[in-house]
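Deliverable D5.2: sample structural annotation.
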Amino acid sequence: MCLSWATNARSPIVISTGEYPPYSSVRLKHQGLIPHIITRAFAYEGVSVKFNFYPWKRAYRLSEKGLVDGTAPWLESSERHETHLYSDQILPEIYVWFYLKSVPLEWDSFSDLSSRSISAISGYTYSPSFYEAIKSIPLNVQFVTTLRQSFDLILNGRANVTLENIDVGWYSLRRFYPTSTVERFVTHNKPVIRGGSFLLISRKHPDAAKLISIFNRGLGALRESGELEKMIEDSRNGEYDLDGRS
């Protein structure tokens, strides 16, 4: 179990996360945009932070069990509210369908996907309506462990679509493939999920409410100063890429 932050204030709080570039990655400056935002927000309040990277399921379970102080970033989830306290929203997130131009998609509701093969990532938080549609329509969904696997399945004709954050999806495509391959993809103009990224602090932490309050104050100061907006702009301009690639 974690030591109480209140009684061990010199130690950094430990946040579990996973690979989710450009939002979080060991291959990015500051470990990505969201770890940078969280670090800077806590720094406004004099608190240091350490990020540990794991597969997403493990990242969450470690926090759920109180083996780390918290985890980020996550979307809204009623299940996770039971085991964690949520921060104020860090960033808005919009999720869309990615697919090949050569296999066009007409989509208005999940039932329109009943004849399609969908790739999704195990451990991600999708909307409750998506999980319900998997069971009720049903949808043909194959779960994989990485976004690269989802895109590879689409390119190999073994899946038709995948659901991803629009910034994350396009960033990842540019990293994974040559321009000629990236240009084969398109996104649907109707968002599937509108949500936001949050920091979660485990309810097992004895000072969970205090940490959330501290973070929210720091996040507000970061936003008020204009630093948060600049960080988002820098990330979208490729300033967090260690090798200079956008």
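Annotation notes: The beta strands are 13-17, 49-53, 70-74, 84-86, 91-100, 117-121, 140-144, 161-165, 185-187, 193-202. Residues 58 and 123 are 9 Å apart (CA to CA).
The annotation will be released with the project's public dataset once the embargo ends.
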